[in-house]
Amino acid sequence: MKISTKGRYALRMMIDLSEHRNDGFVALKDVAQRQGISKKYLEQIVLILSRGDFLKANRGFQGGYMLAKNPDQYTVGDILRMTENGLAPVACLETTPIDCERSAECLTLPIWQGLYDVINNYLDNITLQDILDKRQEQIGYDYFI
Question: 95 by DSSP, 3-state: which?
Fold first, then answer.
């Protein structure tokens, strides 16, 4: 499994919006500039995340985007599943129940299921707030007297 640019950029954008959540609606051009990502590409990502009710949008003057919920209510797994259309390491795990004709006798299926479980467990236990808190810990120890 390889996370695409779309997934990586979506996560960066969601972290950016988390950092600026007290600023109200944030212009996409500002996110693009801070993150070094094309505004056009972010527009595609915003469409996906808006369909999943991850974002609120406001058009016109003072328009932009903001998180629909608090940062502690978004997991990295949720964001990546939304933008990557799933996190399954092999195609046979993309459907439930597994519709592969060989699944009953497949000796490797338990390996892929185990990997899938580890991926989901790991990514579902990291929230946007966790990422912000970790960053704050790192910055918090960087002071001068």
Answer: coil
Q: What is the distance between the alpha carbons of residues 103 and 119, in angstroms, rounded to a whole number? A: 21
Q: State the DSSP H helix or E strand holding residue 128, giving kind and residue range, or none if neither.
A: helix 128-140
Residue indicated by tokens 């707030």: 129
Q: Which pTM does this prediction carry?
A: 0.88
Q: Which of 96-125 are b and which e, b meaning 16 or more Cβ less than 10 Å from the residue's Cβ?
A: eebeeeeeeeeeebeebbeebeebbeebee
- Distance (Å, whole) CA 79 – CA 58: 21
Encode 11-66 in three state secondary structure: HHHHHHHHHCHHHCCECHHHHHHHHCCCHHHHHHHHHHHHHCCCEEEECCCCCEEE
Q: H or E segment at 67? A: strand 64-67
Q: Quick one: pLDDT at residue 116?
A: 95
Q: From the first residue on, what is the mean pLDDT of each consecutive set of 10 residues in the chain (145 residues)?
A: 94 97 94 96 96 91 92 97 93 86 89 96 98 83 55
What's the CA gap between 125 and 74, in Å, rounded?
Answer: 10
